[in-house]
């Protein structure tokens, strides 16, 4: 899971222009500077493109903290959709 976290943090950095060092599993998306619904959709597209997974939109939009997103992505990579 550390690689998944690093990849997701890097994608958040690219999409929301937030330094990856400031991103931890317990960071709430709503507290990120520049975080809007557009950035949320851009992040979803980036995750799906870069990692080759397809996330359930409802499950993705229900995620409130970075760690939950990492778990969701890791489950998809392991072939266990939520």
UniProtKB/TrEMBL annotation:
Annotated Pfam families: PP-binding
Highest taxon listed in the record's lineage: Bacteria
SUPFAM superfamilies xref list: ACP-like
InterPro entries: ACP-like_sf (IPR036736), PP-bd_ACP (IPR009081)
Carrier domain mapped to chain residues: 2-77
Name of this chain's protein: Acyl carrier protein
Organism the protein comes from: Micromonospora sicca
Lineage summary: Bacteria, Bacillati, Actinomycetota, Actinomycetes, Micromonosporales
């Amino acid at each position: 899971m550390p690689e998944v976290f690093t990849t997701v943090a890097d994608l958040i950095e690219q999409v929301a222009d937030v330094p990856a060092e400031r991103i931890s599993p317990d960071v709430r998306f709503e507290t990120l500077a520049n975080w809007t619904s557009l950035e949320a959709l851009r992040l979803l597209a980036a995750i799906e493109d870069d990692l080759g997974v397809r996330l359930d939109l409802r499950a993705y939009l229900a995620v409130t903290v970075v760690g939950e997103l990492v778990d969701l992505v890791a489950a998809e990579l392991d072939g266990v959709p939520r």
